[in-house]
Design goal:
single chain, mainly alpha, Arc Repressor Mutant, subunit A, 2 domains, two-stranded antiparallel ribbon, elongated
């Protein structure tokens, strides 16, 4: 299997997943070889792809690639081995590693930098890293809806009407008469954004379960993160 040069970190991530798959499956080419990530980078990756030994700079990039793969939940430490250097694929990592290397798309983003709210990050991070994108989104939107309900004046009245719009625009809703006209405009914009996101989520028929979906999900979670902040801001000025 050939790869294009130079060996960038993004390419090294894909290469590592492919080779680790051969280490950690029973019928893999290297099932009897060490899955220590250093050995993989120095030895079996070279053999599998028929490339020259990694330069010091390429090895450093490879080591960083391994850390990021573990951070994003594609690989994990093999607890049955003697040190943390031994890695194995997660279920999400196995699914991706089965693909042709040219078809692998990995998100090049730090989800924790998108989810700046600790409560939201704690709620959805595990599902996101495990590739359970629909579950992560459902939890996030539920959290947002509950946050809005907490801050309306008379939730029992609004819930009977079963319209998300009433959570925002009504005498008891989140957007109430106040002296800050600029904030009122912002809140009305938030209202329409909220409805749009909810309608999109409820009407989505295609499961989010591929690599591109990781990026889409991160973007949507970022909007939820923003919505939560704005909801808190508007309740503070009422």
């Amino acid at each position: 299997m050939s790869v294009s040069m130079p060996l960038t970190k993004a390419l090294l991530k894909k290469m590592f997943l492919k080779v680790l798959y051969e280490h950690t499956t029973e019928t893999g080419l290297y099932s009897d070889r060490s899955s220590n990530y250093i050995d993989v980078l120095r030895d079996t990756m070279v053999d599998f792809f028929g490339i020259s030994y990694l330069t010091d700079e390429e090895f450093e990039e490879g080591a960083l690639a391994v850390r990021e793969l573990e951070y994003y939940g594609y690989i994990q430490t093999n607890i049955d081995e003697e040190t943390e250097n031994f890695k194995e694929l997660t279920e999400n990592g196995k699914r991706i590693a089965r693909k042709n290397i040219d078809d692998i798309v990995l998100p090049n983003l730090n989800i924790s930098s998108v989810l700046t709210r600790y409560d939201l990050r704690e709620l959805v991070l595990d599902e996101y890293l495990n590739g359970d994108y629909n579950v992560a989104l459902k939890k996030a939107f539920t959290m947002l809806e509950l946050k809005v309900r907490e801050n309306i004046v008379r939730p029992s009245v609004l819930l009977e009407k079963e319209q998300a719009s009433n959570f925002f625009v009504s005498e008891e809703g989140l957007i109430r008469e106040n002296k800050n006209e600029e904030m009122t405009k912002r809140l009305k914009t938030l209202h329409f954004k909220f409805l749009g996101d909810i309608m999109w989520y409820n009407s989505a028929s295609t499961p989010l379960d591929d690599e591109e979906s990781a990026i889409i999900t991160a973007q949507i979670l970022g909007f939820v993160n923003l919505h939560l902040k704005l909801v808190e801001q508007c309740t503070q000025i009422m």
